Fold this sequence. Notes:
Elements: H1 7-17, H2 48-61, H3 76-89, H4 94-102, H5 107-114, H6 131-134
Helix pairs in contact: 4-5
Amino acid sequence: MQIEISPDIAKVIKRCRQSEIASPYLIHHRPKRKNPDKTKEHWTQILPNYLGAELRKIRDNLEVFQDIPRNQRPTFHEIRSLGSHLYDKQGYSDKEYVQPLMAHADLEMTKRYQSGHEIKWNKVKAELTLKDVFDE
């Protein structure tokens, strides 16, 4: 897959490449110990659980979240889900744009990520005449 990027994203990628760590990954880290790990392709690789845990630490240290109970603070996947919803709301095609961007195997998963962010109201008319009911 090839992703066309904006100038802002290009700046982020440039910052990632300026790391003092030689890594084949844009997002990477220097572990405390270089123990062999069979689940990693490279010692600087970040595994999925690490990203969520680090985001939680950062989030919990931000002043903006201090008044929100820990179990109600947004998770990595909730933030990602909101991003998918916002693309959908701005009119981006789910099939051609959002699904590939989110790296979802099928459109059903993309739709699941996008659900639950707003109340979708059904518009109906209440045109019942009560004259016959009250017979006044």
